[in-house]
Amino acid sequence: MKRILSLILVFAMLTLMAGCSCGEKKTEQETTTIAWAKGESLFGSKLKEYFDACQRNDKKGIKAKQKLTTGFGEVAKEKNLSKRIGYTFADLNADGTEELLISLIDMKDKLNNYVIAVYQYTGDGIKRLLEGWSKNTYYLMKDKLILNEASGEAEDAEITKLHMRENAFEYVSTLSIKYGKKKKINYLYAEVGKPQNTKKFKVDKKFWQKKCKEWEDQIDVNNVKMIKDFK
Question: What confidence tens digit (pLDDT) does each residue in 24-40 have?
Answer without folding.
Answer: 545 555 656 777 888 89
